[in-house]
Design brief:
The protein is mainly beta and 174 residues long. The protein is built from no helices and 20 strands. It has a 5-stranded mixed beta sheet, with no helix packed on it. Strands 12-20-19-15-17 form a 5-stranded mixed beta sheet, with no helix packed on it.
């Protein structure tokens, strides 16, 4: 009996196909033929191949298991390849002690949505945020290396790290 298991993946991950086929008598040699539309490789004779994909979508994967007597069975399973989000943001030059907004510019395609934002803002108040566009105050003139991690509704993740410049307040001499 041909059978395998696999779970949907995010683009860029390897799909591990786990062959669970059974044959009687146990231990008899079996010939396997995999058809993996859109995959690299697109076909395989391995017992449990690992496959990559270059674009999101779905793949109707089939396995044909053939016994030494020439009897065969086919099993099919559709796997989703979810799109990756693209984390991005822009920030104005901040003045020390003044509030500003870091603007999220993250995107995702394929009908997916970004479901969470995780900001690490060293030297900022707040220093972390889950807001889409966090309002931040930096009290010290410096450069803050800000990190944004975005997660899609399918659990796919992307990270971006960029410097944010905090300028000193002008000194007024009377």
């Amino acid at each position: 009996v041909a059978a395998f298991t696999a779970t949907s993946i995010c683009l860029g991950q390897q799909l591990q196909l786990s062959n669970t086929s059974t044959i009687t008598p146990t231990g008899a040699p079996v010939n396997y033929v995999w058809n993996i539309p859109g995959g690299t490789p697109s076909s395989s004779a391995s017992v449990s191949p690992s496959v990559g994909f270059s674009s999101p979508g779905s793949s109707n994967i089939s396995l044909i298991a053939t016994s030494p007597t020439g009897c065969s069975d086919t099993f099919q399973l559709t796997i989703n390849i979810y799109p990756l989000p693209s984390a991005a943001f822009s920030a104005p030059y901040f003045c020390a002690g003044s509030a500003g907004t870091i603007s999220n510019l993250s995107t995702i395609g394929g009908g997916a949505t970004i479901s969470s934002y995780s900001w690490l803002i060293p030297g900022g108040n707040p220093g972390t945020s889950s807001a889409q566009n966090p309002n931040v105050v930096f009290n010290v003139a410096d450069t803050s290396i800000v990190r944004l991690v975005v997660t899609s509704n399918d659990g796919c993740v992307d990270t971006v790290i960029n410097p944010v410049i905090i300028r000193p307040l002008p000194i007024i001499v009377a």
